[in-house]
Amino acid sequence: MAHHARLITPQGKRIELSPKLYSQIMRLLTPRSRPRTKMDGVIAATYGKYAGTRSLTQALLAERAAERVCEERKLRRFRA
């Protein structure tokens, strides 16, 4: 009995993978040895540096919410 590789989605759906596709996915997931670039060093040095401080994502969301309020005011003026 032949066994086929399966991919299981977060929803529990099973997807059969051909041997060729399985091999391609494994190549993507297997860490490769490559020379570290300067950017790799920067990322490693700053990883976690800002943990515990103000969330930049939350700051951007708050800024966008304020922009939406201004946009709505402008639209109301033009509609009136």
- Can you write the helix and strand succession as a string? EEHHH
Dominant shape? flat
Which structural class should the secondary elements be placed in? mainly alpha
What level of helicity do the residues show?
A: 55-70%
How many β-strand stretches?
A: 2
Strand order of the largest sheet: 1-2
Largest sheet: 2 strands, antiparallel
User: What is the percentage of strand-forming residues?
Assistant: 5-15%
**Low-confidence parts:** none
Ends distance: 73 Å
Mean pLDDT: 81
Rg, please?
Answer: 24 Å
Number of discrete helical segments: 3
Give the key terms.
80 residues, mainly alpha, two-stranded antiparallel sheet, 55% helix
Would you summarize the structure shown here?
This protein has 80 residues and is mostly helical. Helices cover 55% and strands 10% of the residues. A hairpin with a 5-residue loop joins β1 and β2.
